[in-house]
Amino acid sequence: MTKKILVTGGTGYIGSHTVVELHNAGYDVIIVDDLSNSSADVLDSIEEISGKRPEFEQFNLADTAKTDDFFNRNQDVDAIIHFAASKAVGESVEKPLHYYRNNLVSLINILECQRKYKIANIVFSSSCTVYGQPDKLPVTEDTPRQDAESPYGNTKRVNEDILHDSVKAYPELQAIALRYFNPIGAHPTALIGELPLGVPQNLVPFITQTAAGIREKLSVFGDDYDTADGSAIRDYINVVDLAKAHVIAIKRLLESKNKAGYEVFNLGTGNGYSVLQIVKGFEKATGVKLNYQIVPRREGDIEKIWADTTYANEELGWKAEKELEETLLSAWNWEKRLRNIQ
């Protein structure tokens, strides 16, 4: 019988790509999303790509009664991938209580329903923000977590603790936390991709919107970091590669191959690229010149971080495969499709 996976936040950027890969792997999917940062139109695109339409329900998982009602009606769910969360770093500084309520209560509600309705498996969308500015690079899964720079980052850290403690207390639960580095790019069909509401918070959508003429110029925050060209360094991973890792994690849980009840994996490429390298890489991949300016550093930004992916490569049998220029070109193709640019 086909396994059924609940994907919370499944109409979002990473969620939608993961639903496609779950369909490609033969799973049935039901999405719960409140559409606060996405659009129901994504369901049409998922169906166009995969030939299969996911079930969909719209509500906020921080609503305890609605969450319980959902699980009561969907007791055939075999596993959960939990993406749904408020995710803008700057907004979280301005609205910490909103972020703590939304991001923490939603996970607690899910875990309580997992116990009540006997659903053992959950994959959690975590982040490399839990490492802060590490003392040593690259970061492994054993790199000490540091105090978060924002309430958003802190919700990832606290949610990891909630998962760890829950699995320890309730042996019927098992969980995998996937710590993402910087997801970029879009599906090769250009039918789904990153669609920020308002001014983009992430680098690549700001680049593509600048290239499309929607933004006047790109701001590069700082050229005086201790890096080769002075701009900050991150580990940028293709969103499709990232999505495929979730399918592998689900399979690992369903086949009871996770070895510790609660496991953590870094998902990156193992390579660090500077902001200016990304700018030049985009120009090379697309042939489009970018209007950019160097501005002062942004508060809260770390200098450099990239992953040691050895553990995920060896233990999950997963590896990021797509090259940077291919990934940047996919982001541009998505932007062009959105804006009807030839």
Automatic annotation (TrEMBL):
Keywords for this protein: Carbohydrate metabolism, Isomerase, NAD
Catalytic activity: UDP-alpha-D-glucose = UDP-alpha-D-galactose
Gene Ontology biological process: galactose metabolic process
Class in the EC hierarchy, top level: isomerase
Subunit structure: Homodimer.
Record NCBIfam families: galE (TIGR01179)
Protein name: UDP-glucose 4-epimerase
Organism (species): Sunxiuqinia elliptica
Lineage: Bacteria, Pseudomonadati, Bacteroidota, Bacteroidia, Marinilabiliales
